[in-house]
Amino acid sequence: MPHSAASHRRGNILTTTTFRSLGILAETAEALEAVGIITPFPIQEMTLPVALAGNDVIGQAKTGTGKTLGFGLPLLDRVVVAADVDAGRATAEQLTDSPQALVVVPTRELCQQVTNDLLTAGKVRNVRVAAIYGGRAYEPQVEQLKKGVDVVVGTPGRLLDLAGQKKLNLKQVRALVLDEADEMLDLGFLPDVEKIMGMLPVKRQTMLFSATMPGAVIGLARRYMSQPTHIRASSPDDLGATVANTTQHVFRAHSMDKPELVSRILQAEGRSLAMIFCRTKRTAADVAEQLEKRGFASGAVHGDLGQGAREQALRAFRNGKVDVLVCTDVAARGIDVEGVTHVINYQTPEDEKTYLHRIGRTGRAGAYGTAITLVDWDDIPRWQLINRRWTCRSTTRRRRTPPPRTSTSCSA
Fold it and tell me: What is the pLDDT of residue 161?
């Protein structure tokens, strides 16, 4: 969860706005302050006044900018729980065991992260939040729904499945969030999302967040949103503070030299958590195994692992039990972990978009990071294409990705 216990800068103006001053419930502010979250990031400061007023919102923001609290806090404010009755803000008749708010996300990992963030923010009010996603047994999720939940965070397939079986009642939902809508488009989930939206009450608040706004996402917003306010975390020409805060290095390296190169990079002074990206599941497994043999505390996340093993690896990475996570692009979608200082592209990404997704794991929420790409001889044409497109888009940035250079060692 993004956080800040101090003021932050917007342009040349020092901002001292707090979450309390933006009008969230006192209990929610108390829960945030208990974990050191006091002042909002720009996307949160821009979104909260509009969303708390009940308006529909389109938020254009990348992962890592703090958007979860931007939509999560208004969402929590809209649900009625027992604490609200005790405080005199609601009546007992308004209480329900059916979900009052729904967050739809593209991946299991993002589902878990958003759920944890909402549980943290809703702790004082004891807001019941359920994570509903595939790859896990139905029974525990159905049992949780039977006991009663206030907010459901889920992936489209499992949500649609449980709703179709009448295990998930969506008739009481008064607030909907579509998070990372462009990712849901890329993964082919938009038809399922539309089916889910058709099950919801017409009268509701809808918030849509997306890093980019492709035509299909714009069309979805036009069909299902009412006079939405469009909020951008940065100007359209800005590639975002996330990338601007990341120093990028590129090295040409033979595949046989890469394990040694990576080992040296991981010994860099000041290195904290590191993510290593591979194109294939086999390479990811091999790299993780080699790093373990070299004495690094590493874990792996790739498609050949079961959901339980993936969750265990992510939990160990977040908790610091392992400080190196080797992953494939598909398996890493939606992973948002604080404190990642280094991203290593062990294999050249497929395209510019994948490159941006990878390096966007570091340099988040005002922090600085380092991204290192190792380019095989066979991958030079692919990298040149990525670099050409990236350079064209980066003309206003101070840092620019250098061309590959031959190296047998590297210090980050």
Answer: 96
Give the pLDDT of residue 64. 66
Pairing of strands 8-10, 13-15: antiparallel
Q: What would the DSSP string read from start to end of 264-287?
A: HHTT-TT--EEEEEESSHHHHHHH
Query: Domain spans of the chain?
Result: 8-232, 241-406
pTM score of the predicted model: 0.65
Output the CATH code of domain 8-232: 3.40.50.300
Q: What pLDDT score does 16 carry?
A: 65
Residues of the chain with pLDDT under 70: 1-16, 62-64, 233-243, 331-334, 365, 389-412
> Which candidate, 273, 299, 231, 238, places its Cα nearest to that of 367?
273
Residue 206 token pair:
């809808």
What 146-149 contacts at long range (C-beta under 8 Å, 24+ apart), as own/partner pairs, is 147/97, 148/96, 148/97, 148/98, 149/97, 149/99
Count CB neighbours of 282 within 10 A: 12
The torsion angles phi and psi of 230, rounded to 5 degrees, stand at -95, 120
Q: What is the pLDDT of residues 241-295, one digit of tens each?
A: 556 788 899 999 998 999 999 999 999 888 999 999 998 889 999 999 999 999 9
Q: Please write the tens of the pLDDT for every residue from 388-398.
A: 766 554 433 33
CA pair distance 89, 79, nearest whole angstrom = 11
Contact 7, 15 (CB under 8 A): yes
Give me 3's structure tokens: 């956080």
Other C-beta atoms lying within 10 Å of the C-beta of residue 196: 22
- Per the document, the length of the chain is 412
**Amino acid sitting at position 78:** R
Classified as helix, coil or strand, 195 is helix
- CATH code given to domain 241-406: 3.40.50.300
pLDDT of residue 391: 56
d(CA 371, CA 342): 6
CA distance linking residue 179 with residue 284, whole number of Å: 28
Distances (CA, A) of 176 to 47, 68, 173, 207, 364: 15, 13, 7, 6, 26
- Alpha-carbon span 53 to 74, nearest angstrom: 9
